[in-house]
């Protein structure tokens, strides 16, 4: 059974989220959702790209979702990137 977790990207540097993702993968998480909203969409893509650089061919994209959601009276765009990292042998 796959274990799934998520990271919501905010104002911290990209490297912090990459570190968090690697820690989650090393703790047994197989699938990770990287979520960026509004002005942090570019940073979520940056986190994915940095993870792909570090984990190379083992990281697989499961799903990419782009949309918008209501937050109070505003509509906020978001991106959700779901990646799979097979557990270490």
From TrEMBL:
Keywords: DNA-binding. SUPFAM superfamilies: AlbA-like (SSF82704). One of its GO terms (molecular function) is DNA binding. It comes from the Archaea. Residues 7-65 form the DNA/RNA-binding protein Alba-like domain. This is DNA-binding protein. It comes from Ignicoccus pacificus DSM 13166.
């Amino acid at each position: 059974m796959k274990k799934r977790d998520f990271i919501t990207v905010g104002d911290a540097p990209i490297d912090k989220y990459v570190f968090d993702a690697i820690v989650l993968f090393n703790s047994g998480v197989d699938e990770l959702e990287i979520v960026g909203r509004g002005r942090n969409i570019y940073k979520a893509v940056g986190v994915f790209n940095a993870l792909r650089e570090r984990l190379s061919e083992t990281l697989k994209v499961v799903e990419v979702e782009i949309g918008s959601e209501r937050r109070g009276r505003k509509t906020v765009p978001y991106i959700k990137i779901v990646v799979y990292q097979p557990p270490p042998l």
